[in-house]
Specification:
By secondary structure, the protein is an alpha/beta fold. The chain has two domains: 14-44 and 305-413, Aspartate Aminotransferase, domain 1 (Alpha-Beta Complex), CATH 3.90.1150.10; 51-302, 3-Layer(aba) Sandwich (Aspartate Aminotransferase, domain 2). Helices cover 38% and strands 17% of the residues. It contains 14 helices and 17 strands. The chain has helices spanning 14-18, 46-58, 69-88, 103-113, 136-145, 162-168, 191-200, 220-223, 248-253, 288-304, 306-325, 352-361, 374-380, 396-413; strands spanning 27-28, 31-32, 34-35, 97-100, 123-127, 148-152, 173-179, 204-208, 227-231, 242-246, 264-267, 272-274, 330-333, 342-347, 364-365, 367-369, 385-389. The protein has a seven-stranded mixed β-sheet with strand order 4-10-9-8-7-5-6, with helices on both faces. The chain has a four-stranded antiparallel β-sheet with strand order 13-14-17-16, with helices on one face. Strands 1-2 form a two-stranded antiparallel ribbon. It is globular, with a radius of gyration of 22 Å. The N and C termini lie far apart (56 Å). The protein binds pyridoxal-5'-phosphate. Pyridoxal-5'-phosphate binds next to helix 4.
Length: 414
């Protein structure tokens, strides 16, 4: 099993870091790639890719069942990854970390688990800033149970209105689910206060950390959060793997979502008893290489340092914001005082898709559209935005290239 990281970066040496990401030196449409779609998925460093190939080359085996050496090695590596995730998020126990296929899967495990305990008239609270994957599963749950979904509104800056949130809370509130950071606008939400206020009325809280995890290390015990979910592919890990953190007491009460192998203690045709945590929620053969690589991705970003990453990305955000604001007719959506390096914008009279297409021809990868957050677009009464989202491996020069390309695009379109 290869070591996950040999280099220590201090202080952040972006040019050195970029060498870990071979994809960043490829060309797109004859131009150097500028990858600014990090909020959709991050790129994968060699240190993580190597861990995946090492697994398939050297110790590919099913876990938790074999007595043979390969199975033991795979099990050890998988469980070591679980412990890395536990440490990173400061969970009290490794078994509070459930491996899932990603944020969407994690949210569905929790929402399905509430189908039996909710009653007609119970209330659930979501925010106006959510990704569809933190809206739709709960709407399905409301349809099943007769529970009612209430929405915390936001203002023009893309900041949630906490006074309105407080008005929505009551003893009818059973669950609150909010993202830590909005993928569409970059707003960092005051989750500590949101959690405290929900707990004061006896409600539980799920935080969607998919967009926060690459930039902010959540401490689940300090937050006292009931559930925290994320996907590895947003933080330099592979796709198809993520986590559901749940407090031991919450996970013990939550019924399992899927039945199958690995999740049982005993099966007869009369009755099955479920396995202990975390296996109760991990039916079937999991994404073993993915789980191990998730751990390696955390090693990778922790070796650079989350604080260094956040500080550098803040500089990119300020630089990019200042440069974009100089462009006539350009409007930035999401101007919260606390935000991550996501800039959503439009230029007056031009469809975001047209800007995105021309930028792509010039090698610049941005996202256009509603970013799986249609309610936010409806709030601003726009079809979508162009979204540039930065990571620690991006540079100021790349932002300059985007500005040059954008000016070219606007000349063609205006
Ligand atoms: C990316 C993202 C999701 C969805 O993650 P998947 O990996 O597609 O399940 C959910 N919420 C937020 C805030 C996201 O950024």
């Amino acid at each position: 099993m290869g070591s996950t990281l040999d280099l220590i970066y201090s202080p952040m040496d972006v040019q050195k870091i970029r060498k870990d990401f071979p994809i960043l030196s490829r060309e797109v449409n004859g131009r150097p790639l500028v990858y600014f779609d990090n909020a959709a998925t991050s790129q994968t460093p060699l240190q993580v890719i190597d861990v995946i190939t090492d697994y398939y080359k050297n110790y590919n085996a099913n876990i938790h069942r074999g007595v043979h050496a390969l199975s033991q090695e795979a099990t050890d590596a998988y469980e070591a990854a679980r412990q890395k995730i536990q440490k990173h998020f400061n969970a009290a126990h490794p078994f509070e970390i459930i491996f899932t296929s990603g944020t969407t899967h994690s949210i569905n495990i929790v929402s399905n688990g509430y189908a039996q305990s909710l009653q007609k008239g119970d209330e659930l609270i979501v925010s106006a800033l959510e990704h569809h994957s933190n809206i739709v599963p709960w709407q399905m749950l409301c349809e099943k149970t007769g529970a009612i979904l209430k929405v915390i509104p936001m203002n023009q800056q893309g900041v949630l209105l906490m006074e309105e949130y407080e008005k929505l809370l009551s003893d009818k509130t059973k669950l609150v689910f909010v993202n830590h950071v909005s993928n569409a606008l970059g707003t960092v939400n005051p989750i500590k206060a949101i959690i405290e206020k929900a707990h004061a009325v006896g409600a539980q809280v799920l935080i969607d950390g998919a967009q926060a995890s690459p930039h902010i290390r959540a401490d689940v015990q300090a937050l006292d959060v009931d559930y925290y979910v994320t996907s590895a592919h947003k933080l330099c890990g592979p796709t198809g793997i993520g986590m559901l953190y749940g407090k031991e007491s919450a996970l013990k009460r939550l019924p399992p979502y899927q039945g199958g192998g690995e999740m049982i203690a005993e099966v007869t045709f009369e009755k099955t008893t479920y396995a202990d945590l975390p296996h109760k929620f991990e039916a079937g053969t999991p994404n073993i290489a993915g789980g191990i690589a998730f751990g390696a991705a955390l090693d990778y970003i922790n070796n650079i340092g989350m604080d260094q990453i956040a500080a550098y990305e803040e500089e990119l955000l300020q630089y990019g914001t200042a440069a974009l604001e100089k462009i006539p007719g350009l409007k930035i959506y999401g101007t919260a005082p606390q935000k991550t390096a996501v800039i959503s914008f439009n230029v007056e009279g031009i469809h975001p898709y047209d800007i995105g297409s021309i930028l792509d021809k010039l090698g610049i990868a941005v996202r256009t559209g509603h970013h799986c957050a249609q309610p936010i677009m409806d709030y601003y009464q726009i079809p979508g935005t162009v979204r540039a989202s930065f990571s620690f491996y991006n540079t100021f020069e790349e932002i300059d290239s985007m500005i040059v390309a954008l000016k070219k695009a606007l000349e063609m379109l205006q």
